[in-house]
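Why predict the complex rather than its parts? Because the way molecules touch one another can change local conformation, and only a joint prediction can capture that. The input here totals 979 residues.
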Amino acid sequence: MNMLSEGRPTRQDENINTGANSAPQTHTGNRALIVDEPLIFETGSPDRSGVDLPDAPDVETCLGGLERHQPIAIPGLSEAETVRHYTRLSRQNYAIDVGLFPLGSCTMKHNPRLNEKMARLKGFADIHPLQPMESVQGALETIYQLAEWLKKLTGMPAVAMSPKAGAHGELCGILAIRSALEARGDAREVILVPESAHGTNPATAAFAGYKVEDIPANAAGRVDLDALKARLGPDVAGVMITNPNTCGLFEPDMKAISDAVHEAGGLVYCDGANFNAIVGRVRPGDLGIDAMHINLHKTFSTPHGGGGPGSGPVVFSDALAPYAPLPFVEKKDNGHYYLVEEETAEDHHDVSFGRMVAFHGQMGMFTRALTYMLSHGADGLKQVSEDAVLNANYILRSLEDTLDAPFAHSGPCMHEALFSDKGFAEGLSTLDLAKGLIDEGYHPMTMYFPLVVHGAMLVEPTETESKAAIDQFIGAFRSVAERAKSGDEALKSAPHFAPRHRLDETRAARKPILVWEEPEELVEAAE
Amino acid sequence: MRYLPLTPEDRQDMLSTIGAASIDDLFVDVPREVQLDGPIRDLPMHAGEMAVEAHMKGLAKRNHAAGDMPFFLGAGAYRHHVPASVDHIIQRGEFLTAYTPYQPEIAQGTLQTLFEFQTQVARLFGVDVANASMYDGSTACWEAITMARRITKRGKAVLSSGLHPHYVSVAHTMAHFTKDQLDHRAPELTAATDSDDLFDRIDDDTSCVVVQYPDILGRIADMSALAEKAHAHKALLIAVVTEPVALGAIQAPGAMGADIVVGEGQSLGVGLQFGGPYVGLFGCKQKYVRQMPGRLCGETVDANGKRGFVLTLSTREQHIRREKATSNICTNSGLCALAFTAHMTLLGEKGLRELAMLNHKKAVAAAGKLSRVPGISLMNTSYFNEFTLIVDKDTRPLVRKLADQRILAGVSLGRLYPEESGLAHGLIVAVTETTSDADVDQLVEALEGELS
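Output of the joint prediction:
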């Protein structure tokens, strides 16, 4: 062994076995950077606080005799402890900032930090939704500019900005369809949805009071146009079609679908979750649709935040525009911007189906999305969809020799590549492959969706990955897939190197523990 | 382009691997006639950070930021001081750029914070359980009404006149399509809430009675009798809290018998942001948990017996139940929930109580000063950090005029209830820890000037 004069070893002793399996137990149970963090209820205390406040003025209270005397029992931590608590927890999360996050249909692309900086400008972050309109002209213009971008990118004449997320946008579109039909005295009851659709589609239609029926798919993974035509009739209010669809394929018959639905007196909702595959290259307005939501948190890169907030503006055709929800922003001839709300709507928007949400929508997402659009420009957005599609096809063609790709024969995919579990050894599943990918340092792809493919694996790399990153991912994916095919039992207990091994979801659901409760011995000791 | 790592050579190499001659070959499924021949016209081309920043700053500076002038707006969105560490925490890339925690082994950070969030919300509301967030207070309120319909199998909801008018509008929009019946009246400028009136309107067809606490005009009323009456008719009491800081000073709705408590969590950690994104809070009694909408995080163990957290009871949700789901919600308000829970952790019960009392007492002091202005009287006999003034003038033009003098005086009832001329003289004024004595003095002086 080489030693410096101070006695510090400078080179690893070659005789020491460093294999993870033979690593010794630690006193804490932690392993270097993998550190467990207790709950705030176990470390904090209700009389500790990380906030210093000034003294309150010396006046009588006026609380109607309803002072809260019972304990609230919410513990506090000092600022130092708080920052460490959340920082430690953050390190147990996978994220785009950490690595490739190929979650199909979810579009986990890089979130530019300029967007965050712009959303935090005090002129956007520190304004109240009910301030007089003259004091928020810049905010109203921001919404207006974003709306103009969305209309031009989709080729649609109108847009509702207030929906809070994708599913809320779907609801907005379906309510507009229902309003338009009601306005012509047409009480149609059925919405048709392909089996491959996101679960939000049928749930939305039901939430709006519709019955839901399936549209069959053909062997190429597309809507079966003839079957759809056969089902259309006077009871069908409309269809909800995802395009590009959830198999990662463009619906080449989209215009014919729209025409057929219109001819039968229905309206066409397009789920725009996958707009990122065609933005800048194709305008959905040219496909004959009547409404489409746009997930700003997918296509336009506002952060997913561990499950939201999202933002789901909805573009409308001329047929549906009059029914769009309140409020929205208009520009006056004198260059001023104003909100069309309940009272002002009476002038020229009196058939609106009404308000879907308090205030005006996800402003914090609007500023981020507009920043993103300005950064990319029309040329950059076209490149975005092209690179997203290129990356997905590169993965599809690089892995189709190893994995079954059920629709690969029908031609290129769009922004995501779909594989099935066909050929896996007995007893090994898509879930096992996903957990194996975790050990390789990746977030798994979307699994078991769409429902139309057995053991589905939907891989969406997005455009913000380098070729080197994708090559490395392909290598890892191929390796784990080969293990699944050869029956490597070790996959069944993967992940081995994550902060947790597989979690018992059945136990969680059987006797749900949804809030922390004081362990009984502590309660007894306190009494 | 700075966000796109592929080089022209990479693109060519990858096309070769695919066996495509050009990118157009990958778009063959898109009919030729709908493909654009170049970048969309009438939109600008790409721009660097400096140019984009200049554009956005130009828009931002055309707004009057609340922090730059005396500011008294509330009515469902409140300006509170957010500790610096909260924004630091939510900008950790591992939180900011994560997805819904579908792979729990590598999402324990998000899941544990959600479990802590659910516990904090349940304790704050005084109910057994809470979910992992909704979009905002108004949508959470409608979801609660639909949940009451599922539980009671009845379709008539009685709404308090003190419920935020936007929340009422959202419910009206949805009820039109779901055929729910809503029993609602406009508020009156009285010190008493409409509790007695609501009491008389509950009957055997009622699914729920929906009460905002404190209400839109700032009033606070005991809901215990309403809860009893509702329960006697097998209906539910839904309490709506738009200012969660209030619950550091006044009794929890759950303690008064509320079955479902929903709210807007924006006050803690989130900021004003011109109305969104915000965070919907949703809690209820244990026995109704399987009828709840939205994500739920639950405790379990991993294969080695170590405690861990997962999303659970997903058989209620759209991705499993599709058209039979309790709600269509998917993405919720995760990052805002993180901001809420981090702010709450910094406060703790002690800090929350101090913050609440500071808000309340500052409001009492301000109400005293304002009600001494000739032409102004204080409507409320109870309130938390927000109260209603009755002014000798129509408050809507008054508020606009004061805004021109760089004072954001409050929310005029004319803005919220344009069709109710009887409310035109009402002004809702909110006072928080961020309001200084000098701010109040400026408002007093300006009002004296306008009303003299």
